[in-house]
Amino acid sequence: MIINILELGTDVNIESSWKALLKDEFDKPYFTSLVNAIKQAKQENKVIYPPGSLIFNAFKLTPIDDVRVVIIGQDPYHNPGEAMGLSFSVPRGKRIPPSLLNIYKEIEKDLNIARPDHGDLTKWAEQGVFLLNAMLTVEHKRAGSHKSLGWQKFTDAVIQTLSDQKENLIFLLWGRFAQTKKSLIDEQKHYVLEAAHPSPLARNAFSGCAHFSKTNEILTKNNSKPIDWDLK
Fold first, then answer.
1. Whole-model pTM?
2. What does the alpha-carbon distance between residue 155 and residue 210 come to, in Å, rounded to a whole number?
């Protein structure tokens, strides 16, 4: 295990294919500074989410060879027990966040799939939906608190690596923040679907985007198995 990652906590883990591809990023000075900032925050008894074992959960559940769809979020949920290292996802038993509820409503409208009673998106990740947050950690009750630590430099490199290494990926960019990542994607090789953010603050503008059926149409066209969006 690369020493910089270990310093985030002894339980930190990252899948081997990603670890090999991103080794140069882990060795860069900005990543060392990022790790040191998180260590310092913990020494000051600040609560950081998600726990170390889940910081790289998206990478653990979706090896790079399996990635087919990419959904980019902003930063982890900042309430206790919610962040699980997958964008928009919360563990079973936690209240479904408003943005995720709107995602479920769109899936129901788009594909006639009834909404599940939980917010755990692990099943999507295991099918090749890479649920990447731009920031991988956050401080308790302080949304966006780690946006300046260097995570975005790291996750931008991840997006660039996906664009360079893969073909025919489908990037779902919801809201202005995610859409700023478009410049990292080679649209000659990949598909980019854009929509408003599913947050209620977007006043239902996400509704009707039909990204889930469109994604499956593209996958089918490219002889790839459609995503089973049903989480029940």
1. 0.94
2. 26
